[in-house]
Specification:
The two termini are 37 Å apart. The protein has 117 residues and is mostly helical. It has helices at residues 24-55, 66-89; strands at 93-95, 98-100.
Length: 117
Amino acid sequence: SSGINAEWPLRPGDNSGIIKLNSAGCIVYTILQHYMWLVVFAWMLIEGVSMYLAVVTVFGTYISRYMLKFNAIAWGIPMIFPLIGYFSSMSTKSVGGTSFTSGYVSEEMCFLNPQSW
């Protein structure tokens, strides 16, 4: 078919797409995907705070430049976690005399490695 398949980077064991497994593109794709999911959840939290301010505490809650602050929080704070996850998983860890390296990206698909969490 001539359509774009949105699932191609996530199929386990499939290395036929544009982004190859265990490549820099796969790592960037995984970091961006992790970041975007966290941004979605941050915006849900901010929407909840905004609704709380509008419905529960109607009077006396003025936040100057609130959209600028909300944007900085929702787009800035989630950036920290994928970077910490990626750089912390690059190191070799030792547990009970056995050393191992658990990668940030799964070996089978361009997605977070479930064993690294």
